Amino acid sequence: MKTIGHIGEDALISRLLELVPTTHPALHTGPGDDCAVAEASRHEWQLLKTDAIVENVHFTAEASMRRVGWKAIARVISDIAAMGGRPQWFLVTIGMPKDYELEKIEQLYLGMADCLNKYGGVICGGESTRVSAEAGLVISIAATGMVKKRRLLLRSTAQRGDDIYVTGRLGGSLAGRHLDITPRLCEAHWLAAGRFATAMMDLSDGLAKDLPRLAGASGLGFCIDPARLPCHDNCSSEQALGDGEDYELLFTVNPRKTQRLAARWPEHFPDVPLACIGTMVASGEGMVLSGGWDHFR
Amino acid sequence: MKTIGHIGEDALISRLLELVPTTHPALHTGPGDDCAVAEASRHEWQLLKTDAIVENVHFTAEASMRRVGWKAIARVISDIAAMGGRPQWFLVTIGMPKDYELEKIEQLYLGMADCLNKYGGVICGGESTRVSAEAGLVISIAATGMVKKRRLLLRSTAQRGDDIYVTGRLGGSLAGRHLDITPRLCEAHWLAAGRFATAMMDLSDGLAKDLPRLAGASGLGFCIDPARLPCHDNCSSEQALGDGEDYELLFTVNPRKTQRLAARWPEHFPDVPLACIGTMVASGEGMVLSGGWDHFR
Fold first, then answer.
1. Which of A37, A172, A285, B23, CA to CA, is 20 to 30 A from B17?
2. For B91, which of A15, A92, A142 is closest by C-beta distance?
3. Contact assessment for residue B151 and residue B267, using Cβ atoms and an 8 Å cutoff
4. To the nearest whole angstrom, how far is the Cα of B145 from the nearest Cα of chain A?
């Protein structure tokens, strides 16, 4: 019997998506980017995203539920931001064992409210269902966002020769930082408005997993200098590559704009490091990275 | 320690929704109806819905996964139909144990495709995550739909004196029929286009649970005649009231239109029974129903 553990997450998804309808004239970008992109009006795209976090996979039973609630919403806002968009409508699905403590669920919702009140977005509906006692809490968040058409940023539009940038610091998220994500909403809008980035995504599964995805979507390869990785304190470059759950922005910039970017970024975001870590190269050239997060390996 | 089992699903949801932002000028209807309703354009509303089904709660491990996939999508289309809308974009979240059989997940997706190909709708994205082996499969579907503004049907707009109708037959779904839902998409559009219904919803938790919700949303009471309930073969009126998972339409009609409805319905839907089961009355009058499906009781 072949199980999903045998083939891994990315192969599973592409195999399943061949079985279902995924294209439509009004769907600009379907599965494969941070969000789906659909026609909304003459000047705007609607972004659509779903994301789930599960007890004992993404957080422990001992975690502060208020921080878990924050994380659940912040992960989705990070994806919407990475496309250049603003969060709009949120649908919250909670699977809970029957004897789950009411106080903990209330803390979860207060954490979601903290994040929505800070970055925008409204809960317009939801679903609650029972799961088995052993399953623990399952939280699935679906959301929409809006982006002006000329500000949309995809994974698939990097150009050969572009420089590769990341915001913030990477690695070591499991020490606890993964619950205190800062979605890079302002930074992403500034990059989109200034037309700095040629392609962008957020780092959720680790640079070693996500950079090959951006490169693959753009039909390119990449070359990075591990010494230039902006590692968190006490983190190795290996951890910065593979730990995942950084929720920083990964983006590419035409070399003609890198000087202006380097000059203006610190004026706007003095507290957010910005690192140029490498260059996009032709497909088949450059390097191969392995590691990063896979749910089923 | 107070658990969610103590307070029940409806009380839990209203308590949680007080903690989070749920209102916005562009949000016509937030949590509480079959779908949320948000401004899309001058003439259209966007509908937003999320729904989940869980192994050992909504289906057994022995169920045909193709039928489970059909059910997962059909439940959401039923909600979109009940507002007068058409399905549009779908986001699919699957929580699976690591050793889950690949063949079963593929069957699940084929069942989703069956339903999407029949009723419309496209999968634009999704999420896969690991859950514990004991949890079994968790499937969460979020979707959007569109409805012309003049065709929107809510739960909250029934009028005192309206007649109460249900489509199809009720009860006994657990015998297996709950996996072969027929979303009443054509019927709902015909009712909306002909301006027959004053209020509408779909029956998911059983008439005993859902009719009080429609009446409550409309600020009214109701009176029904159990002898007029359209029961499935070998089902009592108690089962028709309480079993749930019927996915038929429940709607109210101004008495001036009931004659025209009774005359024209059989011409358009000769195979779908239509039953007038009672009348909307003032709040505090009429009857009280108990029973129906609650995930946490």
1. A37
2. A142
3. no
4. 12
